[in-house]
Amino acid sequence: MNFDKETQIRILRVASDRQQGRDVEELDARISHVMDLHPEFEEIWSMGEMAAYPQEINGQIVSPFVHTVLHTIVDSQLRTEEPEFVVETFNRLLKQGMEEHSALHAIIASYADLHFSSFRQGKPFDQLDYQSRLSYLSYEDSEKGENK
Q: In the structure, what pLDDT confidence band is assigned to residue 25 with cuts at 50, 70 and 90?
């Protein structure tokens, strides 16, 4: 998935199909699953193109569109086991006691930071840097961050 108009239209169509109770195809089912994980975005999807813009949700500024694309990218990495180190990181975080959705968000945060940094600098996405960043993720570190 990309952060483009076509993906935005697809996500809005999936949101509409979900609200209307219509069936969705496989990739769209994965998008729908991500939407299920984020009921706080539900109201935003009815805003159409405005859903692509950052919104204040539960006291945080979030772009439901960008968040959904990032979730779907990492979901695809996990399902295809490509790159393999994403699955290894996910499983390691779960074994450490992290909840599934929190583990996803930890990986997504690393991916997003690297993706947007690379994009701003006009550089290609660095898989080795991604692997290195994920190797440092731990449940203990996330707990310390939450207790601050």
A: confident
